[in-house]
Amino acid sequence: MIEIKNVSKWYGSFQVLNHCSTHVRKGEVVVVCGPSGSGKSTLIKTVNALEPFQKGEITVDGISVGDSKTDLPKLRAKIGMVFQNFELFPHMKITENLTIGQIKVLGRSPDEARERGLKMLDRVGLIDQMDKYPGQLSGGQQQRVAIARALSMDPIAMLFDEPTSALDPEMINEVLDVMVELAQEGMTMMCVTHEMGFARKVAHRVIFMDQGSIVEDATKDDFFGKPRSERAQQFLSKILHH
Amino acid sequence: MNLGIFIEQVPDGDGAWWEMLASGLGWTLGTAFFAWIMAFTLGSIVGVARTTDKPSLVRAGNAYVELFRNIPLIVQFFVWYFVVPGLVPAVKAWVVSLDPTEHQFVTSIVCLGLFTSARIAEQVRAGIQSLSHGQRDAGYAIGLTRPQTYRHVLLPMAYRIIIPPLTSEVMNLIKNTAVAYSIGLVELFFRTREMAEMTFRYFEAFAAATLIYMVIAMSANRVMALIERRVAVPGYIAGGK
Ligand SMILES: Nc1ncnc2c1ncn2[C@@H]1O[C@H](COP(=O)(O)OP(=O)(O)O)[C@@H](O)[C@H]1O
Ligand SMILES: [Mg+2]
User: What is the 3-state secondary structure (H, E, C) of chain A?
Assistant: First the structure.
């Protein structure tokens, strides 16, 4: 579904991605972890072309992301993305947040979009909040709406960039629960997260990044059993002791 | 103070002095109104251009702002009124087809519109850049195109955030219409001076003008405050990202 081949990216002379290669198969859940600044956000954003890259190739569902002829809005509409800071549109009601993409991008009728959006809102347990504005919801609720917004577009895969790092501890689980459910239903997911409980529960593979490189790309059992690199071991021991 | 002066007839004119001032007020408001529409439209376009990832657009937008911001307004009035028609034959041809008042009116709108647009462009740029980069990403991520992302995601919030500085720009624009007197537009300040000089009632004339300018500026302020309240986003914390 997602193929990343030898991707490199520079900011000026600073190399932020260094020959990264990996893949996410249909129905697979891949967790990406690594220290802050290691390039996780940059890598995941190259997948839906929010970040351009200079070298290598990425294909999503067979379509080349880096190809200048690719219709990027159309490609992005097929991939859901959830951000660290939720990024709901503050001036739109929850229902409008859920329908704008469906109406403007997929060309659905407002009624159809609303029906689909509310179904997804119900699924994340927030149907009673539909007429509120994002600023009136808690962080955890906003992130669940953000997930519902992405799901309303009927994506073929979902990208998560540290979806729980901006949340107060008591709200993390409500978001993780939604993600676990999604994973168990077979959604293709690439998740940047340090929630190792989540990784243990649903991930198929874990990728460890350091200084722009993919240092480790292992099945979940291998990764938690015996990380090969010293960096990954150190990293794991640090975050697991929290 | 002699309020009777306002109902005295203008020598060689038709109507009383109060009617002259009212007509001046009409030109002032007309100039401000059309200049605002022009300034808001152009300022938004230039402001948006300065926030794109196209270096050539950003540079062109920056140059535009610097040009109109750094030349004194009165100089710009003279350039548009006296210099530009001489430089551009097409403008010259058009201008001679207008009567003088029309020429002054159009020049004032264009000059104030461009001058104010540069200031609005600066506010629009700042407003868009005060939004988190993630908002733009979120728009793109659901498949919106760049224009759609500006239209539905970035600009609605940016405009809300810049209502206070836009209010000052509206008030500045109204006050700046008085500079149009320098090219002979018969707006409020022109008529006030005329009345003062012909009747020697400086106090009455300028007291009236002061009052009228204050009432317009305060009304503009109220209207903007009303708009601000109407479009306020429930639960949104100003400055929060
Ligand atoms: N726009 C940018 N310009 C320059 N450097 C950047 C930019 N964005 C990110 N970086 C740098 O790239 C590196 C990787 O960033 P990021 O992908 O956000 O890391 P992570 O998500 O793993 O914390 C960091 O060192 C960061 O400082
Ligand atoms: Mg990051």
Answer: CEEEEEEEEEECCEEEEEEEEEEECCCCEEEEECCCCCCHHHHHHHHCCCCCCCEEEEEECCEECCCCCCCHHHHHHCEEEECCCCCCCCCCCHHHHHHHHHHHCCCCCHHHHHHHHHHHHHHCCCHHHCCCCHHHCCHHHHHHHHHHHHHHCCCCEEEEECCCCCCCHHHHHHHHHHHHHHHHCCCCEEEECCCHHHHHHHCCEEEEEECCEEEEEEEHHHHHHCCCCHHHHHHHHHHHCC
